[in-house]
Amino acid sequence: MILIKLGGSVITDKAQYRTFNRDAVSRLCREIRDSEENVLVVHGAGSFGHVLAKEYSIQDGFVDFAQVPAVARVQYDVRELNLMVVREMLDAGIPAMSVPPGSCFIMDDGKLIVDNTDVMLSASHLGIMPVMFGDVVFDRKRGFGICSGDQLMEILCGIYSPERVIFVSDVDGLYDRDPKSNPDSKLLTEVTSELLEKVTGDSTIDDVTGGVKAKMEAMLRITTPERDCVLINGSVPGRLYSILKGEKIISTTARGGLR
Ligand code: IPE
Question: Fewer CB in 10 Å around end: N or C, the chain?
C-alpha cells in the first residue's frame, strides 16, 4: 500500500480563505486511478483551515470562549473541503468515504490518540478508501487543538505499514536555502537529519502547523530502514502518476529517521 498526503498547498490556494483547486484535485485523483496502485489518501486543510485557525489560535487550545465559534466554523470548513475531495475521487471512479478525525479521535496534550481503527479498517477491507484530513480535534487537556494531516500520516503508518509514503505539495522539494529570496538555492534530492539541521529559512505563508522544514521532520520520523518518504510537486501534471509507477522524478527523499 502507498500512503499519500495531498497537502493544503496543492488542493487549495493557501493565501485565500476557502479557495478549492478543483482542477488540480480532479487531475491528481485521475493520476491515482490511472496508476492502479493500492493507495490511501490523507489531505491537508490549506486555506479552509489555517486562515481561521491562526486568527483564533486554535492550535494553542482553549484560552477563552471567543474561540468557540471559530472552532465550530473551522470544523465545518474542513469537512466541506473533505467532501469536495471525496467527490473528485468518486468522479474519478475511486470508491472513497469521508472519515473526519474530529468526530472519530481525541487528542491528549497535542498528541493524537487513535485507539479505535474499526471504521477505517472496515472501509479498507471492502476496498473503500477512508479519507482523513487535517481537522480540529478535541483535546483532553487543552480542550481542543489542531490535528494536522502530517500527524495522521505518522499514525496511519503504524496502522497500515505502507511500503511507500508520498507527500504532495506545490514545491519541487526542500531547498538548501529559501528559494524565494535566494535564486541560486539548490534542491536537495535527499534529506537526512544531519542535513536538515543545516537548512535555513522556511515558508513564510500563514500556517499553524509549520512549513516545509517541519514537514521534513515529520517525514523523517516516518522513515524506516525499509521505507523512504518522498516530497513531490503535485502542481506539475504527471509527477504523482510517475512516482506511483516507480519512475524517477524531481523530488526530495527523506531517509534514515529523525535524530
Ligand atoms: C491543518 O492540517 C488542519 C487545520 C488547520 C484545521 P495540515 O497542516 O495537514 O494542512 P496543510 O497541508 O498544511 O494545509
Answer: C
Q: Which helix (H) or strand (E) is 211 found in, with range?
A: none
pTM: 0.94
Q: How far, in Å, from the CA of 182 to the mean position of ligand 1?
A: 26
Q: Which stretch of DSSP H or E encloses residue 176? A: none
For 230-259, how does the pLDDT look when each residue is reduced to its tens digit (9 = 90+)? 999 999 999 999 999 999 999 999 999 888
- Residue 40: which residues within 8 A CB-CB, separation 6 or more? 1, 2, 3, 4, 124, 129, 130, 156, 160, 162
- pLDDT tens digits for range 92-111: 999 999 999 999 999 999 99
| Cell numbers describing residue 32 | 491515482
Q: Is 21 in the pocket of ligand 1 (CB under 6 A)?
A: no
The finding on whether 50 has its CB within 6 A of some atom of ligand 1 is yes
Q: Which residue has the cell 538555492?
A: 185
Distance CA 94, CA 31 (A): 11
Residue matched to cell numbers 470544523: 75
Could you tell me whether strands 2-6 and 164-169 are parallel, antiparallel, or unpaired per DSSP bridges?
parallel
For the CA of 152, the nearest atom of ligand 1: 9
Distance 85 CA to ligand 1 centre (A): 14
52 ligand 1 Cβ < 6 A: no
For the stretch 113-158, pLDDT in tens is 999 999 999 999 999 999 999 999 999 999 999 999 999 999 999 9
